[in-house]
């Protein structure tokens, strides 16, 4: 038998070992390894290993290795993750900063000229008839109080003038007359509760009249309580919770009530600090004996969950015999004459009147709950930010017909095919209106002279100019008058 | 040698006003020397000359008075040539002058106009009717008397119609132009609201500090007057950065497919349009500070203030155009004279 051809045995073995070590470097079965080779030490330790390379972190992708697009072809250019070239990298404004900027109320303009001979309102002249048709300054303390209750609105033109001043127009004088009547009732009569809805055209000065009423009342030492924007109560932006033990269910808005309490304390600080609690309120938080109204209110401010019981207790204190009259106002009435944006537990919309604060106001407006020490309840309608409220519109028409003693055939009747909001209709059934109309030409002249003295109107204020602007302003609509004479466009 | 004191050579006679003006009237910025040429942007009608009476020089008037009074008049004609004039261009002769006169010449040189000042005016003013700067005052337009034409029962209106005389001219010219350029998608009412907010921003912002390296148009009122006259503020900001010309690229005119840059003068309204576009563009690149409707107006207002204070990049843009125009002025080919 011929010997087998000389095989390159060692060489073949080496190649196989290399192949194996390449293929399965770490997990060769033992038996294979044993039968393979007579020199186990070479098999156990591979001459090299790929594991470090395989288990290493992936190397960062090299940039610029993508082939350039073909010449003449279109490519999609999406700058993902890249900022546009014009955009700045600066930090955006903090949370709430933009809204604060938008809602900022500026009450002075250092460029405007101080008006010589501008007389301030005070306790004695505010109720007199002599100031009718004059522009009167609002004293600083009153400005602080009015600012505390958010009576100044950013849409009003306060920022153009040196300091806040206001025209005492016919409607203001009528409101001051109401204040005077409440304060000094006829012999042997109790102080009355006057309830009014302020109506009027757009920009006719309803919110400003509310502010004037608050200013006059504050100067007389009344308690002023203002709900600056009814929309904030019902638009579902505040927390709410069912009032325990209420049937049908009512809902409290604790954070809003707490902030309202703090506004009340800021605006009526002198009275609250000087008056002691005389009733015995049952509160979830301990109240020290011989506490003042301020301390009582601060309990609610400090713990919002107790704010509604504190508000009820505070109101009981304010209506206690011997206390001053109350001026209770609200702006944007139509928002609370419909269902709110809040939902009940069974996902039904909550009617606005089931919110405790709204109900509190509505009860006083409708006359269901009187103010024992007298006072005025004012609700201003809005024409620029108002959801439709047919019940309110109808009630206002009815009140106007009632005021002019219209014949029954001329009184408006409800369209039976419309869905009626019965609760709104009932609460507005016997509330009178105070219509805010345009300025007379004399009043227009007074306020235009004030503009000119402030350096804002650069013209000679004469009969011709006044007549021109008065006509352009829709027969003396005060907002339009301001727009045509000092807003320039 | 002709007489050195020739009254006819004075560019502007010194007018004697026998009575001081009784009351203050808004006056336009008066140019020291009436321009010899009508600028493209000016109105076609030359401004009416000042009254021709009382235009005698002081010494001339003194001579005339003396003649009337029968005294010996001062020798106007026999005045010699001043030494300074003789040695004006002669550097060697200047060295031999007395020290006092040398100092005087030096002082004169240092007092001369700065290097970059132009001999021509770059001013644009709002000319309404009587050729006066509109200070934003209603009813203060100086009465323009149109020529009496027989047959017109109520006379003819003076043109251009003053602001407010017609409902289409209710607003100031500049305000109208800015409003229209602010307008997007034909929403004029929104543009007007923005315009109103811009003017309100100017009205309530603090008094601007003027940067002397960025001079506003000559005749600008002091900065303390600006916030209370927001239309003037706006006009001043726009007119101060309004370019005098634009650069037209004439294709292929330079040969070899290269465009030739030719400066083209702009009219008043065009100049303003360019400036407003620049300002609005710069404003829209600013950062929003608040939210809501007044954001754009606030940014435009801030940009206008920064223009007046010389901080805005619009100034560089205007200067670049002017520099380019100066470089390209050799490309203007005037029609050859025959």
From TrEMBL, chain A:
Instruction: Alphabetically list the UniProt keywords.
Output: Mitochondrion, Ribonucleoprotein, Ribosomal protein, Transit peptide
Is the keyword Ribosomal protein in the record? Answer: yes
Where is the protein found, in the record's own terms? Mitochondrion
Q: Gene Ontology terms, cellular component aspect?
A: mitochondrial small ribosomal subunit
Q: Cross-referenced InterPro entries, in alphabetical order? A: Ribosomal_mS29
Q: Which Pfam families match?
A: DAP3 (PF10236)
Q: Where is this region: Disordered?
A: 75-102
Q: Which GO terms describe its molecular function?
A: structural constituent of ribosome
Q: Kindly indicate whether the keyword Ribonucleoprotein belongs to this entry.
A: yes
Q: Which family does it belong to?
A: Belongs to the mitochondrion-specific ribosomal protein mS29 family.
PANTHER family membership: MITOCHONDRIAL 28S RIBOSOMAL PROTEIN S29, SMALL RIBOSOMAL SUBUNIT PROTEIN MS29
| Name of the protein in its database record | Small ribosomal subunit protein mS29
Biological source species: Lophiostoma macrostomum CBS 122681
TrEMBL record, chain B:
Instruction: Give me the Gene Ontology terms describing cellular component.
Output: mitochondrion; ribonucleoprotein complex; ribosome
What residues does the Small ribosomal subunit protein uS7 domain cover? 169-329
Keywords (A to Z) from UniProt: Mitochondrion, Ribonucleoprotein, Ribosomal protein
- The domain of life for this entry's organism is Eukaryota
Cell compartment(s), UniProt: Mitochondrion
Gene3D superfamilies linked to this entry: Ribosomal protein S7 domain
Biological process, per Gene Ontology? translation
Q: What does this protein do?
A: Component of the mitochondrial ribosome (mitoribosome), a dedicated translation machinery responsible for the synthesis of mitochondrial genome-encoded proteins, including at least some of the essential transmembrane subunits of the mitochondrial respiratory chain. The mitoribosomes are attached to the mitochondrial inner membrane and translation products are cotranslationally integrated into the membrane.
Which family is annotated? Answer: Belongs to the universal ribosomal protein uS7 family.
What is the protein named? Small ribosomal subunit protein uS7m
Q: Which organism is it from?
A: Lophiostoma macrostomum CBS 122681
